[in-house]
Amino acid sequence: MGKKHLALLLLLAAAFSAGAINLSLAQIDASRLLVSQTVDLYLSVTGQDGRPLRGLPVEAFRVSESTDGRQFHEVRDLGAFTPAAGAAEGITFLLLMDNSGSMYDSVRGGATRDPALMRVNHAKEAVRSFLTRMSGPGDRVGLAAYNTFYRGLVRPGQDRERVAGALEGITRPQPEEAYTELYASLTLAVREFAGARGRKALIVLSDGENYPYAEHFGKPHPEFRARSYPHTEPIRACLEEGITVYAINFGPRQDRNLRSIALETGGQVFEAVDRGELSAVYRRIHEQVAAEYRLTYRAGMQPAERKYVRVRVGQAGSEAEATRFYFSTTVFGLPLAALSWLLAVPFVLAALGVWLATRLRLESRRGPARLEVLHTRVGSASTRALPLGSAKTVIGGSRKADLTIAGAPGVQGEHATVLFDPKTRSYTIVGGGDITVNNRPVKSRRLEAGDVIDVGGATIVFDDGEV
Amino acid sequence: MSTLARRLILAALGILAGAAVWPAAELVLYFQARFASYLPFLGVLGAVTGALLGAVFGSAEGISSRVKTRIPAGMLLGALVGCVGGAVGLLAGQAALWLVGEAALRSYRSFRTVVLPASRAVGWAVLGLFVGVGEGARAGSLKKAAVGMLGGVVGGLAGGLVLEYAGLLFPRLAFPRLIGFLILGLAIGVFYGLVERGLSHGVLRLLAGPLKGKEFLLNQRRLGIGASRRNEIALPAYEGLADRQALIRIRRGEVTLVNLEPRVAVLVNERQVQEARLKYGDVLAIGPAKLFFKYE
């Protein structure tokens, strides 16, 4: 360890002893787990004043993993470590603005007609300031607004002027549009991050509670229909996509679940009352995210629906720690809880089945002489196989025929007759119409096993029953 | 055995293969934590799965041709080819994942629900390809190998998708993976049978004697006919035939019958021939064996 690191650790130890440091596990990116067996952690370390604590060495961090959140195993295989990863690689921000009816009230509360006093214009001003201050060359920013409806205005990108222009498109909603679908909008906003990699932050500005249309207007929502969005929905969506929610309360009323949405996704909650405070909050969020450390570690192979990661920073007795989880199932899912001998049953049954298949007696058996219809070019036969029991068997188009070939214009009522001679125990076919045997035209012919008879397009095989 | 019966046997063997694979796969999954990473884990899982699928399907030709000596050899070769194919297959699925690379990693949800299962289904298709190609390798027939490849790929892809999505599709079922493996095996069996039939140049059906009713698909360039069990059309119970009595040759879609041992007469539509181009509907007599050439 170099002198510089030692000095920093001493500084850190001093800061811890004053109880002045916070650690937040802002984002876990497990999307490379199955490809490279690695997980990326984005760690935010801040001092008492909320300012990022920069310059910590990798030795200051310890990472543990658990399948149940109780028993943790320390990870020895720490990989790449990138201080100020957000500043180096760029951050994807989505600014989600409240555009419900109350945003057109005064920042002090109550109705106003003066645009300069309206919350919405203070918010727009703060966003413009945020856009101006965004200095990271790789930073991307997008804009969305919500009330009764969620509206994605600009997908995250590097064109900040487009975002500034879209701000002007946010106008006062009609009465039916003035509800606050906060949870639904947070959930839908997640899709704006499609295609974004690295650090992803959703900054939601809210001036009140979740106030769903269907619940308060008494009709199904025009877009969501019967679907309801509990506050757990955006939490799950953000965790799956590795998005952190930073919530800004900008008004007298606060949503009771917004704090938990922010904290569970690795973010924070901020308060602001006017454009000055709001600008400062946006600035602080950007500064904090840009200063995060990215720590990559090699994950274990223990199967679990979710894996808990605990990170500690500092020294024994004066540590800060943060724990979060990521989803770690493979598509195969979890293994069985225990192996049982019963598992052998399908294997044994399969082996038995294959063995039985090898024992199948597929040879033909001796039976009565018969005619078997292989195929009819025109029409259809009354049966596929006809035993030749009687002395005389008629093949023809007539219903009275023993073997009827229906729907074939070339077949006469009694087209051919098969006669049995009990003395020679042989069969002879006699044609009333044109017939062939083994593709040879005949009028009359003694049949042999396997002879192929054609009667007006019907292919019939004579089977003498012997094998 | 008719071609329908052969297809049914292939489908049944597919289900049996799925049933055999499931406990073996569960065993590998149970020891997931012992593996260093997902790569060797997937390799072993694929090898075990492929070996069992290959072994069961390797028995198909021996069963349907009623030449029992072909069964153990077919199973062994099937297991070997399947083992390699399984490992290569699932790693190919992983490679497909790398190929889609950046796009695949952008959204964890879509990665987990679309990209990962789809790319691994590609892996199952490769496994199916190897399972299908086994019989072609045994018979030394490129055409048969191609039939197996296509049948295996389509079946592996269809069944693999069901297998990969089994947990998502049937979350309430007690053993969704068992259902998935049964469907994977069934799909490989069914598609192998369908492709085999679709790409064949016709069928020879025995009309008389102990094997009457049995049908032989003309799905490779050369098929031997004779008393020896080494022939593709083995007729040991038909007296008087030479070990290799005749040959069916397929070239540019034309099917030709050649008599290799003139001491036994070969007839086409009751005319003695030395060599004859066949057309559908022809009746062949090779010594005491009578066959009907048909299209199916």
Walk me through the structure.
The complex is a heterodimer of chains A (467) and B (296). In chain A, β10, α9 and β11 (269-271) form a beta-alpha-beta unit. The mean pLDDT of chain A is 88. Chain A has 11 helices and 24 strands. Chain A has 3 domains: 3-83 and 294-327, Immunoglobulins (Immunoglobulin-like, Sandwich), CATH 2.60.40; 88-290, von Willebrand factor, type A domain (Rossmann fold), CATH 3.40.50.410; 370-463, Tumour Suppressor Smad4. In chain A, strands 15, 16, 17, 18, 19, 20, 21, 22, 23 and 24 form a 10-stranded mixed beta sheet that branches. Helix content of chain A is 23%, strand content 33%. Chain A has 467 residues and is α+β, with helices and mostly antiparallel strands. Chain B is of the alpha+beta class and 296 residues long. Chain B is built from 7 helices and 11 strands. Chain B has helices spanning 3-30, 38-58, 60-65, 70-104, 108-139, 142-169, 176-198, and strands at 203-206, 215-217, 222-226, 233-234, 246-251, 254-259, 266-268, 271-272, 275-277, 283-286, 289-294. Chain B has a 6-stranded antiparallel beta sheet with strand order 2-1-11-10-7-8, with no helix packed on it. In chain B, α1 runs antiparallel to α7 (176-198) and α2 (38-58) packs antiparallel against α4. Chain B starts with a helix and ends with a strand. The model of chain B has no long low-confidence stretch (mean pLDDT 84).
